[in-house]
Design a protein that fits this description.
single chain, alpha/beta, Gyrase A, domain 2, Rossmann fold, five-stranded parallel beta sheet, 21 helices, flat, binds arginine
Length: about 550
């Protein structure tokens, strides 16, 4: 919102730019907002410092509602806020804040979590939820209409292996524990069996072929297995407040995807055939070719993803169609989206965005989703709760659960999506460092200060403010921007960084200055208003990140 004022000021002296081009300088002496002149310098073939100097000179006597000083340093034009005015605008805004509205009610479709429906969610893929959930919440808060979709891969080999195991051993579907955990035992057994007796491979393939080609009995068994698995997932989702509008089953797209492939075949340039298989020719676009129809006329994972993404966009008409998956599927989605374009749906492919995340490892090494060491997110949550009880001497089970779960969610979310997460309990539960408990604790600190005072009047500004108050106001003023950046770059780690900086700035302010016993009544009210504003914004961040708010720790 202040970026716009700087943009307007720049416009007055003939510089056309946009809010995204402005930076928030790291040091106070460089002002509150900076406009870098490198791009202009390139265009005009001039020295950037000269340009910065010229602009600053022209703007010297121009002030906006909040900006009251313009200077230049190096190649930057620096704008300085008038904190009395800024504070009153920001704090009033926070007190009355409900939702932002820059999304203009436009629709966002986001497909995330999408665990394989044959065993419980493991830590590796749980990261998917901790990317998709905060993104959904941020979009919603920004004023978009969000549709949350969970894609269910109910086709493919792993499903067939499990189904075959149930058929061969005549197992009744009667879970006696959390149903996804119940399935895990059979999942492990079935894979073990296959490893020991490779001859079974043929039978499994037969089951897979029959299933994908319309065998109703197998299809109905798989449906039951997958349904109970989803039941189990929902138990996990409840812990983090995740709720989907739709489960979209891959099998829904078997026939539809063949239709699209036939369509493609009409376009002779787009495909090649090899031994009866249909291959889409992506080399002209710098991508490897990919098979989209096998010689036996069955489709593949990518074939269905082509159809499912066309379906989602046609049905929901969103501004963006976002898919979140692990980084191993980067190429897959490049190929799928390009193929959608080649099918004549450029308008659809342009709306598609793939967000991929790197994997989560525990210090002991990579987590495996197949056999062997599977680290389940439910177990990690449970362990987190126990650690919280032990380390923080928390007796209340519910409270320990809330702190524990949030700490795991935060530890994963705070890492940029393209970087691996390696986590240790000391990190996850640190009260000093960048952790979930640290943020929750800062929030409870605000709450307990506010609890001590009964009645006070909001005071949103002072004529003079100290540096720590200014820093806090500046930090609070950046909230809306961060929300915008998350929707632009689809990186939820931004809110984590923001919340951490806010908590740290607040702690610093609170440790140095008296609030309840401030020197004057007005100062006390102003500082209480700062505390209240911090509490609101920090609480909002916790909510957007999918963490639990606790009132006491
Ligand atoms: N189930 C897949 C996995 O665990 C993710 C599904 C991604 N979505 C899709 N439309 N292919 O890796």
């Amino acid at each position: 919102m202040f970026e716009e004022q700087a943009v307007e000021l720049l416009g007055k002296v003939g510089i056309k730019t946009s809010a995204e081009k402005l930076e928030r300088p790291p040091q106070d002496e460089f002002g509150d907002l900076s406009f870098p002149c490198f791009e202009l310098a390139k265009e005009q073939r001039r020295n950037p410092m000269e340009i910065a100097n010229e602009i600053a000179l022209k703007l010297q006597n121009q002030i906006g509602p909040v900006i009251d000083k313009v200077e230049y340093k190096g190649a930057y034009v620096n704008f300085f806020f008038n904190y009395t005015k800024l504070s009153s605008k920001i704090l009033k805004g926070i007190m009355t804040m409900k939702k932002l509205n820059f999304g203009e009610n436009k629709k966002i479709v986001i497909e995330y979590s999408s665990p394989n429906p044959i065993h419980p969610i493991h830590v590796g893929t749980a990261r998917n939820t901790f990317v998709g959930e905060p993104l959904s919440r941020v979009f919603e808060f920004a004023g978009y209409k969000v549709k949350r979709i969970c894609y269910i891969n109910d086709l493919g080999k792993q499903v067939a292996i499990l189904a075959y195991h149930f058929i061969k051993n005549k197992i009744k579907i009667k879970p006696d524990k959390k149903s996804d955990h119940w399935l895990l035992d059979f999942y492990i057994k079935s894979n073990d069996e296959l490893k020991k007796t490779p001859e079974l491979e043929k039978d499994t393939e037969k089951i897979l072929y029959e299933y994908e080609n319309g065998n109703k009995k197998i299809a109905s068994l798989v449906k039951k297995l997958v349904e109970i698995c989803i039941d189990g997932f929902e138990g996990t989702y409840r812990l983090t407040g995740t709720k989907f509008d739709e489960y979209l089953w891959e099998s829904k797209f078997v026939n539809e995807s063949r239709k699209y492939v036939k369509e493609l075949i009409k376009n002779k340039n787009a495909f090649v055939t090899s031994e009866g298989a249909t291959i889409i020719n992506l080399e002209p676009y710098g991508l490897p070719n990919t098979v989209i129809l096998r010689s036996d006329n069955t489709g593949l994972y990518i074939t269905r993803d082509i159809a499912s993404n066309i379906y989602k966009v046609k049905k929901n008409k969103p501004l963006r169609n976002i898919v979140v998956t692990g980084e191993d599927q980067k190429l897959h989605f490049k190929q799928a989206f390009k193929t959608i374009e080649l099918l004549g749906f450029k308008d659809i492919s342009e709306k598609c965005r793939h967000v991929s995340y790197a994997y989560v490892t525990l210090p002991e090494g990579k987590l495996s989703s197949r056999l062997g060491r599977v680290v389940l997110i439910d177990d990690v949550f449970e362990k987190a709760k126990e650690e919280v009880k032990k380390r923080f001497k928390v007796k209340d089970e519910k409270l320990a659960e809330k702190i524990g779960i949030s700490s795991v969610v935060y530890a994963i979310m705070k890492i940029d999506v393209d970087k691996q997460v390696v986590f240790t309990w000391d990190d996850v539960l640190s009260l000093q460092g960048n952790s979930g408990p640290y943020l929750q604790y800062a929030y409870t600190r605000c709450s307990s200060i506010l609890e001590k005072v009964k009645k006070w009047k909001y005071t949103t500004s002072m004529d003079f403010m100290n540096d720590d108050e200014k820093k806090l106001i500046k930090q609070l003023s950046n909230f809306t921007n961060v929300i915008k950046q998350v929707t632009r770059d689809l990186n939820p780690a931004y809110i984590c960084n923001y919340a951490y900086d806010l908590a740290t700035t607040f702690n610093n302010f609170y440790e140095k200055h008296r609030v309840v016993n401030a020197e004057t009544v007005k100062l006390r009210e102003f500082r209480l208003t700062l505390v209240k504003s911090t509490q609101i914004i920090l609480g909002k961040c916790l909510e957007l990140m999918g963490m639990h708010i606790v009132e006491k720790m």
